[in-house]
Amino acid sequence: MPRLRFAFPAGAGRRAPRSVIPGFRLSLGLTLLYLGLIVMLPIGALLLKAADVGFWGYIAIITSPRTLASFQITITTAAAAALFNAVYGLGLAWVLVRYEFPGKRLLDAMVDVPFALPTAVAGLALTALFAKNGWFGAPLAQWGIQVAYAPAGIVCAMAFTSIPFVVRTVQPVLEDMEPELEEAAATLGATDFTIFRRVIFPTLFPAFLAGTSLAFARSLGEFGAVVFIAGNQPFRTEIVALLTFIRLEEYDYAAAAAIAVTMLGLAFLMLLVVNAVQTWHQRSAMGEG
Amino acid sequence: MAAPVNRNRHRVGDGLRTRAVLLTLVLATTALALIAPLAVIFSEAFARGFSAYAEALVRPDTLHAIGLTLITALVCVPVNIGFGIAAAWAVTKFSFPGRNLLLAVVELPFSISPIVAGVAYLFVYGGQGLFGPFLQAHDIKIVFALPAIILASMFVTAPFVVRELVPLMMAQGRDEEEAAVSLGANGFDVLRLVTLPNVRFALLYGAALCNARVMGEFGAVSVVSGNIRGQTSTLALQIELLYQDSHVLAAFAAATVLAGVALFTLVAKYLIERAERARGERAPARRPGH
Predict the structure, then answer these.
(1) Where would you find the membrane-spanning parts of this chain (chain A) (predicted)?
(2) What is the value of pTM for the model shown?
(3) How far off is chain A from B204, nearest CA to CA, in Å?
(4) How many CB atoms neighbour CB A132 within 10 A?
């Protein structure tokens, strides 16, 4: 997902001595060739195709009611899924770092299940859980709540596939937090809630925000898990990724290109947001260390 | 004398009630959100006993999908390992302008929806694409066939090995390689005898993640493969086909194979991290990223 994990300090290249290690041209050449053919060529082709559509053609496609509805559905469900993960992820990270209990190692390993499990399998599993006679679907039906084939199902699918993001960004910051800060606050008479609100949460906040943005970005592009459970009705449960797919199947390549390039733009925007948050995060971490 | 550390320290949220409430809430949510989806796959697959499961699994079309998935992984994973080593070598053993940009491009596929990746590939090799007319004139089939499945899988997995190797190789520096070169070793010997043994666990882990993603990729592959029954449906696509055709048991049986791969990957991760700790190799903090 969008994130620059490692950045070289600016100017390091000039100060470092020339390397005596061989293989610079070969390794860099192979890397550029692979990235060019596998990553940049298709992105370039997509941009070219979208440029063919023309400005007014693009506007007409993007502002068509069905496209706008799919964007609205995708963004609101992704936001709801990110909200769930913000709360659950923070709680999970807290429990994993602060408490000792049997099965803690197992729980820590379980957090990565949504990344390892293929999205189609996740979608199939969630559909089974929320089916009318499913483990969750049957009790919910008695309350008159339908999740499968409704927007709530999309939220569930998106929430499941992005569970690890908040946990894995908050966890290391919480681990590195110095106990002296809390002690000092406690000595000064602050209650636990005040310490959490005034001392702990502000320290966690950049990482927390970065994790939540990552979860949101991932949910915007999710496809496999959602198509199983969503029911895929236009104007109700049709996400942008699915609409792109449908336009392709209708041989409407202009519309597919226009919608795909908009998703690409949205992904780049999220990438910038996450990187900005992360830079802030690193700076605030350095300020304290 | 050992100082009595952390004995009477006040830590927020350590009260018995807070602890009980938080633990209960988090564990209950985990049971519902993480464990139930995993459990329901196996519960559904084995709902009618083992022999029904085995029968539902060994359908010819599912077996064909498994074969296609294995071939794709057998091509993609070694290529990704090769690319990962080359990119990590270039970026960590040499200083050149644009290294951060290069790494940003490597990570780009993580930010792009698999559907967008699939559409982009159609616009390169499809009938409407950049090379479409040329490929048709020479009767070369890429889209809706194995080559496109492999290419799209390479796109979505491009970052996997690199992002495991780079932080570790950067932390290890260049001293050992420089010493080996000054003793007369050539580049490939340095790579084989010095660098790779130092990063073998990270390499294995990256390869395991790459494998899991290749085998489970759905969105990108479903666009470029055409999902032709019994021909270009990989295992993840086969699950959807079976489910749409109301072969629910067969769909869950096929899903257990991929769920098994996922669980195997997590066990591998656990073992690799333990081995890293045992060797005292400081594992770089694993960051989220799919």
Answers:
(1) 24-48, 68-97, 109-131, 143-167, 199-217, 253-277
(2) 0.90
(3) 15
(4) 10
Q: Using CA atoms, how far apart are residues B223 and B117, in angstroms rounded to an integer?
A: 9
The architecture (CATH level 2) of A54-288 comes to Orthogonal Bundle (1.10)
d(CA B173, CA A185) in angstroms, rounded, equals: 41
- pLDDT (tens digit per residue) in B198-257: 999 899 999 999 999 999 999 999 999 988 888 899 999 999 999 999 999 999 999 999
Both B37 and B176 in one domain: the answer is no
Roughly how many angstroms between the first and final C-alpha of chain A, as a whole number? 27
Please classify residue B60 by burial: count the beta carbons closer than 10 Å to its beta carbon, then call 0-12 exposed, 13-18 middle and 19+ buried. exposed
- CB distance A182 to B11 below 8 Å: yes
Q: Tokens 């090995």 map to which residue?
A: B161
- Residues of B within 8 A of A24 (CB-CB) are 90, 93-94, 96
Give the span between the Cα atoms of B263 and B35, in whole angstroms.
12
Place of tokens 């699994």: B57
Q: CA nearest B244: which of B225, B211, B222?
A: B222
Q: Does A21 touch chain B (CB under 8 A)?
A: yes
Answer yes or no: do B164 and B211 share one domain: yes
Q: At a CB cut-off of 8 Å and minimum separation 6, what does A267 contact?
A: A2, A217, A220, A221, B111, B112, B113, B116
Distance CA A65, CA A235 (A): 8
> For residue A58, how far is the Cα from the chain centroid?
27
B38 and B179, same domain (yes or no):
no
Domain of B220, in residue numbers: 50-278
CA–CA separation, B164 and B207 (whole Å): 9
